[in-house]
Specification:
With about 190 residues, this protein is of the alpha+beta class. It contains four helices and nine strands; from the N terminus they run E-E-E-H-H-E-E-E-E-E-E-H-H. Helices cover about 25% and strands about 35% of the residues.
Length: about 190
């Protein structure tokens, strides 16, 4: 993986990021099928709560998750583009108030053959000591997203799971973090 990359806010040191959330799932599919599912906008809409991926297929390329109306929900850059084994993108939530002021995180997907299946590992990494209340948002959402991807690839049907919104304390934790900016203190 690249050691640093350019972003609108300047150079980002990849070595500062530490895993905050890691999920592993096994999918009866080929690495190529899993890879294609993660970069195809029509496919992502089916398993990612209606969001469509828009990705420039190269390191340094633009990455976006688009709402059904075309507005940007998440923006970032491609950090690692190694088809069909590894995809890593920076991740900055744009649609929720205050989120654009938080430091971006990294979301990476590692795809490894596992017999007749694939081991998909999703890692969400952060450059600061992110509060548990904020991490809970991903810890609730990622299992739904990844389980729906698995179901869609294996059965042709995405799961019918509602996106129930942020967990209790999530919005308040974001507001506190934006107000206090603990990442500027090196925490």
């Amino acid at each position: 993986m690249a050691q640093s990359y350019e972003r609108g806010r300047g150079m980002i040191d990849i070595e500062r990021f530490r895993p905050g959330t890691v999920y592993v799932t096994y999918i009866v599919a080929t690495p190529e099928n899993v890879w294609q599912a993660m970069i195809d906008p029509a496919f992502t809409r089916q398993f990612f709560f209606g969001l469509a991926v828009d990705i420039e297929p190269r390191v340094g390329g633009a990455f976006k998750l688009l709402m059904p109306d075309g507005s940007v929900h998440v923006s970032g850059k491609v950090i690692d583009w190694s088809p069909p084994r590894r995809l890593c993108v920076s991740w900055l939530v744009a649609v929720m108030k205050g989120f654009g002021e938080l430091p971006e995180c990294l979301v990476s997907y590692s795809i490894e053959p596992a017999g007749g299946s694939v081991r998909l590992t999703m890692t969400e990494s952060h450059s600061w000591a992110i509060p548990e209340e904020i991490l809970q948002g991903g810890r609730i959402g990622w299992p739904k997203i990844l389980s729906s991807l698995k179901s869609l690839l294996e059965t042709g049907q995405a799961l019918r799971i509602e996106n129930s919104g942020p967990p209790v304390g999530f919005i308040e934790a974001v507001q506190t973090a934006v107000s206090e900016k603990p990442w500027l203190r090196g925490s």
